[in-house]
Design goal:
Number of strands: 6
Radius of gyration: 14 Å
Helix content: under 10%
Strand content: 35-45%
Shape: globular
Largest sheet: 6 strands, antiparallel
Number of helices: 0
Order of helices and strands: EEEEEE
C-alpha cells in the first residue's frame, strides 16, 4: 500500500499507532448517565490524517446518535485526543 501524499510530514510526537491507549473527550455512558468527558479507548486504525478509537462503553456523536460499533474517528492532530494522564487503567473503561 502506498502512503498518502501530504504537505508536510506528520509530527512523530502526535502520531498514534494501532494498540495505543488514548483518552478522548466525547459523549459517553458512565453508569446510568450520559456524560461528556475524557474516556479511555484503544487505537484500532490509523493513517496519515485520521485515527480510529474503539471503546467498551456506548459513545455518541455530537448530534446525539449512539455509535453502534463504539468506534469514533478523529484527525491525528485533534485536541480531543491525548495520551493517558495516568498509567492506571480502570477495567470498566478499557
Amino acid at each position: 500500500m502506498t502512503s498518502a501524499p501530504f504537505m508536510r510530514p506528520p509530527d512523530p510526537e502526535l502520531a498514534y499507532e494501532v494498540g495505543d491507549i488514548v483518552e478522548v473527550y466525547c459523549d459517553h455512558d458512565r453508569g446510568e448517565e450520559r456524560v461528556r468527558g475524557w474516556l479511555r479507548g484503544i487505537v484500532v486504525q490509523t493513517d496519515s490524517k485520521m485515527v480510529a478509537i474503539q471503546f467498551r462503553v456506548n459513545v455518541y456523536l455530537t448530534d446525539g446518535w449512539m455509535v453502534p460499533d463504539h468506534i469514533l474517528w478523529y484527525p491525528q492532530t485533534s485536541p480531543q485526543v491525548r495520551k493517558p494522564k495516568s498509567k492506571t487503567i480502570p477495567v470498566d473503561e478499557l
